[in-house]
Write a structure and sequence with these properties.
The protein is an all-alpha fold. It has 2 domains: about 1-115, no CATH class; about 115-275, no CATH class. The chain is about 65% helix and about 0% strand. The protein is built from 9 helices and no strands. The chain has helices at about 5-40, 75-80, 95-110, 115-140, 145-160, 165-195, 200-215, 220-240, 255-265.
């Protein structure tokens, strides 16, 4: 088998695996917030399910979905975005979540080749992708995702450590602490000033986890990119809705994640994505 043929087979495998993980991302995006609300006695406390059970079902008619209607990307296209049973529209985000997961996998391979760095880069983007969608839909950044991002980040920096492992680990922890504090201080100041939260602590934890992966020097860049992107988005949204900008409620998590992606792309070619 030629080298080119082998490369194409490997890329096809990457795409198929990423698409399957995109399907699982949809499960987490739909179920995880509802599980957390149920634990808190919120509006969805009657939903008796977890990540594993029951099997996938239509969110409109609740009919279980057959496996051939649940093939990532292809089923959505084949069914033209409609449930096979009730013919109600399936939210397009299911397709975009799966497609985005494939894009992050290919982006990681493009930057780092078929290496362990590419795998770790994909995991980083995958967890940010899931967290961003949950925050965009529910204004919620689950602690379990932030903890996973942080914990895996610590394992990654140790795995790729060059030189003193303990020193690398301490730098990662310092970067995480800096990422948390740089958002917690305005959070605390605004809370004392206005008596309401301007940010969520989930945003602080997310930036802390990103700091663990990308290093202390990257944290201000990520925050700057996030603020600029959020401001541009807010201005555009306010103009479309003819609404005062300061009255808009915008989830900040997706913009923090986008800032981390911009920082990652800027570091392309030098494996300093991690501490």
């Amino acid at each position: 088998m030629s080298h080119d043929a082998s490369l194409w087979i490997e890329l096809i495998f990457v795409v198929l695996l990423a698409a399957a993980l995109g399907s699982f991302a949809n499960v987490l995006i739909y179920r995880l917030p509802r599980m957390l609300l149920r634990q808190e006695g919120g509006a969805d406390h009657q939903n008796a399910f977890n990540i594993a059970t029951p099997a996938s079902f239509c969110p409109q008619c609740r009919h279980p979905i057959r496996w051939w209607h649940n093939i990532p990307l292809l089923s959505f296209i084949g069914l033209r975005g409609r449930c096979a049973y009730c013919q109600q529209s399936i939210p397009s985000r299911y397709f975009w979540v799966e497609l985005g997961t494939v894009v992050w996998a290919l982006l990681s391979v493009w930057m780092f080749g078929l290496t362990w760095q590419a795998l770790s880069g994909f995991v980083f983007l995958y967890l940010l992708w899931i967290a961003s969608w949950i925050d965009a839909l529910h204004f919620l950044l689950p602690d379990v995702l932030n903890a996973a991002l942080f914990g895996i980040g610590l394992m990654v920096v140790v795995f790729f450590a060059q030189g003193d492992v303990w020193m690398v680990l301490m730098r990662a922890l310092l970067a995480a602490a800096f990422g948390y504090l740089i958002l917690w201080l305005p959070y605390f100041a605004y809370l004392k000033w206005r008596g309401v939260e301007g940010l969520g602590l989930g945003d602080c934890k997310l930036l802390a986890a990103i700091g663990c992966w990308q290093g202390i020097a990257a944290v201000p860049n990520v925050l700057l990119f996030a603020c600029v992107l959020a401001l541009v988005f807010g201005v555009l949204l306010a103009s479309l809705r003819r609404q005062v900008l300061r009255s808009l409620k915008i989830p900040f998590g997706p913009f923090i994640s986008a800032g981390a992606l911009v920082q990652m792309l800027m570091m392309h070619g030098h494996f300093k994505l991690f501490v």
